[in-house]
Structures are given as C-alpha cells and as structure tokens.
C-alpha cells in the first residue's frame, strides 16, 4: 500500500468537523442479490432505486489483489445494477457525484446550491464512495483510484467472526484523517452514534454481522464554492461478507 503521508493539518480537520448532521445521508454499497453482486443505494433498510441514479456514478472499477484494474462493468438488470465479475476481482469500487443539496426551514431538501434556494439553512455538495472486498485478503487493501475518502483495514486477513475487533483507518485524499464519523452497521443500525477516527485516522470497531457488513465513514470538508454550499459531505462505504458455517 502506498504511504499514508502526513496527517491533515488542524485547519483541514476543523473544516472536516463542520456541520455534524448530514445533508443527504444516503450512500451506496455492494451486496449479493439473486446470486449476483449488485450495487445498492440507500440507508438502513431503505433500498432505493439505484438504476435512476446510475448516471450519477462518475467512475467504476474492479481490481485484483495488488490493486491493478481488471476488466469489468456495471450492468442494468431490471431493477438491479449488477457487477460483471467474470474476471474474479478482489475489489470493486465506484464514485458517485450526488450533487448539491440545500435545506429550507420547512425541512425540505432541494437539489440546488444555496444561491438558488432563498432562505436555505444549510447547503452541501455530496460525494459518495464505495469499496467492496470480495474475498479473504492476505495483503493490505490498496488505495483505489478516485476514492477521495476510503476506509481501509489496518491489518489483513479480516476477522472471520462477528463480535471480533476490526481496526480501520480513514483516508482523505490518501492521508489519515481525524474526526471522521465511522458507523459499523450502515444497513441495520444507520442511526448509531458511531465513533470518531483518531489523530492517526484509525478507529476500532466490532464486526457486527456474520454475513454482510457495511461500514460507513462520513467526513465534512471545506466547500468547493462557498457561494453555493457550506461544506462538502464525503460518505464512503466499505462492504464485505463473513462466511457462515457449512450447512
């Protein structure tokens, strides 16, 4: 794995801690659907229409154990978006530009910047990132292209039993970042308080499920255009499945 580099400056950290409540706190992850690997969009049990959001995916890739890209693609299959895994990648990853969202005092969100929403009380640009681990790993998880915010296990192989500790590092622009909020079970407990990454970007959680695990990190960074938004919300998922006992 590439060197993590220096930890972000305190100024960047301060920007990251802005606006603790998320604007559009949906994300995407990868999970098995009908014996296929599918991209899922939503939060908790809300499995929303990912097909209509497919145009917002700005990059997708599949990679071998060393992080080298292998041919793959996303395929629309009815209501599902599935992944071509013929080349048996170790990782799949994607990036979604979810656009600008502004909230008005009545609690409604509008898909526009605050310059177009009079009276907006908060406005954010939203990016979603997702990485899925398809098999047991014996080496480090590489920094994958386009993953501005990425969650990486500090050690591999991963635990094989629910309840075991898992140490993670949150990286922003390839560097460890403090203050990212990490949720250990995005699908079953999306409202958990979560834990904050430390100065070295690390946080230790317990693996929640003997099956699909979707871990999410949320980090707020400075706005790209202060006239349009107050901050950028970066939301990254790391998904993997633990094996069950033989039938």
Report on the architecture of this protein.
The chain has one domain (10-241). It has one helix spanning 10-16; strands at 27-33, 36-43, 46-48, 57-63, 69-70, 74-77, 80-83, 91-103, 109-110, 122-133, 149-153, 165-172, 175-176, 181-183, 195-196, 202-206, 212-221, 231-241. Helix content is 3%, strand content 44%. Strands 4, 5, 8, 9, 10, 14, 15, 17 and 18 form a 9-stranded mixed β-sheet that branches. Strands 1, 2, 3, 6 and 7 form a 5-stranded antiparallel β-sheet that branches. The chain has 247 residues and is mainly β. The longest helix has 7 residues, at 10-16. β2 (36-43) and β3 form a beta hairpin.
Topology:
Elements lengths: L9 H7 L10 E7 L2 E8 L2 E3 L8 E7 L5 E2 L3 E4 L2 E4 L7 E13 L5 E2 L11 E12 L15 E5 L11 E8 L2 E2 L4 E3 L11 E2 L5 E5 L5 E10 L9 E11 L6
Parallel strand pairs: 10-18
Antiparallel strand pairs: 1-2, 2-3, 2-7, 4-5, 4-8, 6-7, 8-9, 8-10, 11-12, 12-13, 12-16, 14-15, 14-17, 17-18
For the terminal residues, how far apart are their CA atoms? 37 Å
Domain module tally = 1
**Shape designation:** globular
- Helix proportion range: under 10%
Summed over residues and divided by their number, the pLDDT gives a mean of 90
Number of strands: 18
Helix/strand/pairing category: mainly beta
SSE string: HEEEEEEEEEEEEEEEEEE
